[in-house]
């Protein structure tokens, strides 16, 4: 019986190593996709916040929000955390649903779902977080994560890509304002003439 392995057999992986190599290959291939999806998710969130922020500011001035703030301020750290996380957990799935509607040929419905969910989420969760933040920061693991996330967001805001995007958005906003002013001038002349 010949005990020498056939030529090239040393280079072939042992059958038990194949699943590990396949997982490693899949991990390397899917990591950029996962990062891209995460970036897209956060960009969508940031754009929605940018759009609804003026509405949130107006709503925050309502007396109802002042009463809610007083009530939330009286809660402990963990009830405050639950109060912030529950609406977030209920409203976050609206984004994938809205994107699915958009992708299946119902863009108006998709944008409406995303817009309403973001408006409610940002209005409610942002205000609740703002009021509950001092108590949330008394939770050790929350404070640890908050410091790291805010440091990462600060670093991200200082990157060249974000600065360029900010300049582009500022330019688009200024262009829109100029167009709005010109349209109002034109409309004013048309109604007088």
Q: Percent of residues in beta strands? A: under 5%
Query: Mean of the pLDDT scores?
Result: 78
- Label the structural class: mainly alpha
Catalogue the unreliable spans. none
Distance between the termini: 107 Å
Gyration radius (Cα, Å) is 26 Å
Q: What helical percentage do the residues reach?
A: over 70%
The count of strands amounts to 0
Oligomer: single chain
Dominant shape: extended
Query: What count of helical segments does DSSP give?
Result: 7
Q: Write down the secondary-structure element order.
A: HHHHHHH
What can be said about the biggest beta sheet? none
Structure notes:
The structure is a single chain. With 193 residues, the protein is mostly helical. Helix 1 (18-60) packs across helix 5 (107-136), helix 3 (77-91) runs antiparallel to helix 5 (107-136) and helix 4 packs antiparallel against helix 5 (107-136). The model has no long low-confidence stretch (mean pLDDT 78). The chain has seven helices and no strands. It has helices at residues 18-60, 63-73, 77-91, 94-103, 107-136, 140-157, 160-192. It has a domain at 21-138. Helices cover 83% and strands 0% of the residues.
